[in-house]
Every structure is written in structure tokens, then in C-alpha cells.
Amino acid sequence: MAGALETAGRVLLVGGGNMGGAMLRGWLEAGLDPAAVAVLDPNGAPLLADIVSRGVRLAAAPAEVERGADTVILAVKPQVMEAVLPTLLPLLADDTLIVSVAAGRTVASIEAALGERPVVRAMPNTPALVNRGITGAYPNARVTGPMRARAQALLESSGPVEWVEREALIDAVTGVSGSGPAYVFLLAEALAEAGVAAGLDPALAMRLARHTVAGAGELMIRSGDEPAQLRRNVTSPNGTTQAALEILMADDGFGPLLRRAVLAARDRAEALSRA
């Protein structure tokens, strides 16, 4: 990773909030030189105070940023992108790579503000905050092989990167992994509530739910088996798990419900992209 990041050149991170901060921490942990990074954040990026003290440059306005970064990472909230993008134009070289992690903002919308240039649209998820995220990414036609490798190195500092062939698939990625952590958190909530209904103390039920969800996730990552096989491994014939799965795997059970949820998230992402 450090070797790949050595080719990143000068990086401008626009937005020092949770996601931008998680990416920056990952870069530095992977060996990126703090002097190669500048953070542009009008609020002073209070979450990054400890990092800035290590040599990362912090700017409150575009006029304070040196022109010609090799890569610009757009990590601002989608609703402020329209106002932010025009202010970046004076900072860009012709071959500056733009990597956007703002949900619902298409490559076309970025090109409309910044002109025709290499753009990668990416969708990370919140486990990036603990270096356990996963990112879906789409490059436009102007992204060269070395540029894609640069984007890969920067994005994978917080977890794996999966590239898609069509930009529309980023909306599907949003429905699965972008919004997916919320589904898992809801599972933990519901599991704890079910434990209370079964007679457990609420605090104990929540501890059991948290660790069960987290432990099962870690097992899926470490195991070479597919989730379906791991499920079968836990399910003894006519046992307790089978009794529960007969409810969850019914025709109107967990699978169809989750498919409806993911498609609803995808459809909303598509609508936001068109807005």
C-alpha cells in the first residue's frame, strides 16, 4: 500500500468531516507523507486537529491552497457540492484527477461544474471510520490506467475497492453497501429487542446482539466459505437455529423483505442522481 501511495503525488482533500477524516487517517497510516496532503475545509476541520499537527496543511478557503494538486478528493456533503465545485476550478491542472465520494452526485454533474476531466465516482460506507469499509467506484473515460491505480490506492486505505463498468451500478452499490450498515444496525436493534421479549435484561440483550453481529461479520471475512455454507454450519437438523430460520426464510421472510429494501435504496439513489 505504501508503495502505491507514493505515486499519489499531491492530494487535496475537500471536506474534513467523518468520511474525509477516515480516508486521511488511512492514508497516513499506510505511509503517505503528510506534507503531500492539503485539507480544504471552511470550518477548520476540528475532527482533524491531531492530524494537522503532524504536518498536513489546512486551508479554510481555496485562495489558501496551492494550485495543481494531482488528485482532488471531494468529501463534502452532496447538498453543498454545487456551491463548492466552482471555487475549485482555479486550483486544478488539466490532468488533475477528481475522486468524488459524495452520494448522488453523477460524473456529469461534476463535469458540468469543472469541465471535461478525469473523474472517479466512488461510494464508500461508514465502516471506513474503523478501516473496515468497502467502496464501489466508477471511472469516466478520461481516467487513465495510472490514474485508476492512484484512485485505488487512495480509496482502499479504508477497505477493499470494487470497480463497476457502468455508472448506474453505483446506485445499486449504494443500496447494498452504502446503506447496508444501517440494515445491520437495525438487525442488532431488532435482535436485542427480541432478546428482551424472550426474558433477557435489556443491557445483556444488547451486548449479545452487538457481539453476535460483529463476530458473525468477522467470521464471514476470515472464512473461505460462502455465507450460505456458514449458515448451514450453524444449523443442526431440527435444532433451535432451524426453528428460527423457518420463520426468517419463509416466502414472506427476511430475503424478500431485504430485496425490497435494497431496491428502494437503489431507486432513491437514482432519483437523487437525477435531481
Q: Could you describe the 3D structure shown?
A:
The protein is an alpha/beta fold. The chain has two domains: 2-171, Rossmann fold, CATH 3.40.50.720; 180-274, ProC C-terminal domain-like fold. The protein is built from twelve helices and eight strands. It has an eight-stranded mixed sheet with strand order 3-2-1-4-5-6-7-8, with helices on both faces. Strand 7 (135-139), helix 6 (145-155) and strand 8 form a beta-alpha-beta unit. The longest helix has 21 residues, at 202-222. 33% of the residues are buried. The model has no long low-confidence stretch (mean pLDDT 93). One of its GO terms (biological process) is L-proline biosynthetic process. Pathway: Amino-acid biosynthesis; L-proline biosynthesis; L-proline from L-glutamate 5-semialdehyde: step 1/1. It is found in: Cytoplasm. This is Pyrroline-5-carboxylate reductase. Pfam families: F420_oxidored, P5CR_dimer.
The helix-strand sequence is HEHEHEEHEHEEHEHHHHHH
- Helicity range: 40-55%
Count structural domains. 2
Portion in beta strands = 5-15%
The total count of strands amounts to 8
Order of adjacent strands in the largest pleated sheet? 3-2-1-4-5-6-7-8
Terminus-to-terminus distance: 37 Å
CATH-level-4 superfamily name of the largest domain: NAD(P)-binding Rossmann-like Domain
Gyration radius, in Å: 21 Å
Largest sheet: 8 strands, mixed
User: What is the average per-residue confidence, as pLDDT, rounded to a whole number?
Assistant: 93
Please state the overall shape, judged from the principal axes of the Cα atoms.
elongated
- Show unreliable segments: none
Class by alpha and beta content? alpha/beta
Write the CATH architecture name of the largest domain. 3-Layer(aba) Sandwich
Task: Identify the CATH class of the largest domain.
Answer: Alpha Beta
Q: Count of DSSP helices?
A: 12
CATH topology of the largest domain: Rossmann fold
GO molecular function: pyrroline-5-carboxylate reductase activity
Function: Catalyzes the reduction of 1-pyrroline-5-carboxylate (PCA) to L-proline.
Subcellular location: Cytoplasm
Pathway: Amino-acid biosynthesis; L-proline biosynthesis; L-proline from L-glutamate 5-semialdehyde: step 1/1
